[in-house]
Amino acid sequence: MNVVGYARVSTREQNPAAQEAELRRAGAGRIFVDHGESSRVPDRPQWLACLDYLRPGDVLLVRALDRIAGSEVMAIELIRELARRGVRLRSLTEPFLDVDTSTPMGEAIVGIMAVLAQLRVSTIRENTRRGLEHARSQGRAGGRPTVMSPERIEAAVRMRESGESVAKIARTLGVGASSVARALSRRDEEFMRR
């Protein structure tokens, strides 16, 4: 039996070292790691390499199911595909995942677990949406504060009126072009409402 690990982080800035260390401690001899990849994208480079490497009788070890599948449908399809190939799936944080998926009970447990994982994701999204709505009703905007201060916006407006491009304005102000474009667009909308 070969224990193969898979780790994934969603952004390039994140470090998968903790996941890798956990997988090694749990017995993974070979570990595949994707950096800056979403679990909703099925053709992640190292994920595909991992699937290609797995053989019947192997164990695929992950920290959590959300490392390999971004939705309950993906999770169920993946677990069934691994079972068809004779590969067992183990999760360090979801011990009930290490079940025999070739039996009706095993398949039912996996289905229930996938639905619960999706419920968690949906609940987080709903709570975030409610929080943002509440903040807006209190006159606060959610998200990261803008880099475009009133002074920068005024400078951007003057530069645009003199014919400068958004890219040139952004370089001059030391901010991103998308920040300048959003600020100018908001300014234009406010002007049109007057």
In short:
The protein is α/β, with parallel strands linked by helices. The chain has 2 domains: 3-120, Resolvase, N-terminal catalytic domain (Rossmann fold, 3-Layer(aba) Sandwich), CATH 3.40.50; 150-193, Arc Repressor Mutant, subunit A (Orthogonal Bundle).
Q: Describe it for me?
A:
With 194 residues, this protein is of the alpha/beta class. The protein is built from 7 helices and 4 strands. It has helices at residues 17-25, 45-53, 72-84, 104-137, 150-161, 166-173, 177-193; strands at residues 3-9, 30-35, 59-62, 88-91. Helix 5 runs antiparallel to helix 6. The longest helix has 34 residues, at 104-137. The model has no long low-confidence stretch (mean pLDDT 85).
Residue share in helices? 40-55%
Which structural class best describes the helix and strand composition? alpha/beta
Provide the number of structural domains: 2
Q: What would CATH call the class of the largest domain?
A: Alpha Beta
CATH topology of the largest domain: Rossmann fold
Q: What's the structural blueprint in terms of helices and strands?
A:
Blueprint lengths: L2 E7 L7 H9 L4 E6 L9 H9 L5 E4 L9 H13 L3 E4 L12 H34 L12 H12 L4 H8 L3 H17 L1
Parallel strand pairs: 1-2, 1-3, 3-4
Index terms:
2 domains, Rossmann fold, 53% helix, alpha/beta, Arc Repressor Mutant, subunit A, 11% strand, 4-stranded parallel sheet, 194 residues
